[in-house]
Design a protein that fits this description.
16% strand; 39% helix; Rossmann fold; alpha/beta
Length: 248
């Protein structure tokens, strides 16, 4: 069997209804994983795309406005791959940022990610036989940079990088790989306004050595690799998939 195969490894991807999450779900399914596509809205489109390619998928409604929404879903379910992609962003000058905005972003991006991953790991470690497991967290370039007008988002993504490292430290010996991906500027609904702004689009492209925006599939393929046996000795890494942005 290929070291990149995910055959027989059941996966759950949060925020899988569109964009990067959808691409990740498709990439995992392409490598043979049965995929649960989770989101606060239905993931029927993603499931249909997987089925059209001969893959196996189901869907689940998970709204991380309740950070503990996933605390009961892993017991006895046989998941060995978790991709924490669901996220939220609210933009406002730091002087005007409200506690409600801060809490809403941190609950989804950091608190929900931690407690979802905790529930996944507990269920996996209770399995017999156990086998390998992988967690892939979706961070951001703002795990390394400050950004502008997104204080909670920036803080949360720095937190995602930190959690990735501590959980890898604690769980690597138990066969759970915990890593993260820091996407660069990717074609998605969230970046549509940037891409439509001719000046901003030109400035962004001028900074990216690869000379193009990322595609969701660029992130999806990296996630599939990190979930596979080929990445068995990668623990606690935050991999930049940014066309060279941070190297510039």
């Amino acid at each position: 069997m290929s070291a990149f195969s995910l055959a027989g490894r059941r996966a759950l991807v949060t925020g899988a209804n569109t964009g990067i999450g959808q691409a990740i779900a498709l990439a995992l399914a392409d490598q043979g994983a049965p995929v649960t596509c989770a989101g606060r809205r239905d993931c029927a489109e993603t499931c249909a795309a997987i089925a059209a390619k001969g893959g196996i998928a189901d869907e689940m409604i998970l709204d991380f406005a309740d950070p503990m929404a996933a605390r009961e879903i892993f017991v006895g379910a046989g998941y060995s791959i978790l991709v924490n992609n669901a996220g939220s962003i609210r933009r406002e000058d730091s002087l005007d940022y409200t506690e409600a905005d801060w809490d809403a972003v941190m609950d989804v991006n950091l608190k929900a990610l931690f407690f979802t991953t905790q529930a996944f790991a507990k269920a996996h470690l209770d399995r017999a036989p156990r086998g390998p497991a992988a967690v892939v967290n979706i961070a951001s370039l703002l795990a390394f940079q400050g950004g502008i007008r997104v204080p909670a988002y920036t803080a949360s993504k720095h937190g995602v990088a930190g959690l990735t490292k501590i959980l890898a430290n604690e769980w690597a010996a138990d066969g759970i790989n915990v890593n993260a991906i820091a996407p660069g500027y990717v074609v998605s609904n969230n970046t549509e306004n940037l891409r439509k702004d001719a000046d901003r689009n030109a400035a962004i492209l001028a900074r990216i050595p690869a000379g193009r925006w990322g595609e969701p599939s660029d992130i999806g393929h990296t996630a599939a690799f990190l979930a596979s046996p080929a990445a068995a000795y990668i623990h606690g890494a935050v991999i930049n998939v940014d066309g060279g942005w941070l190297a510039r």
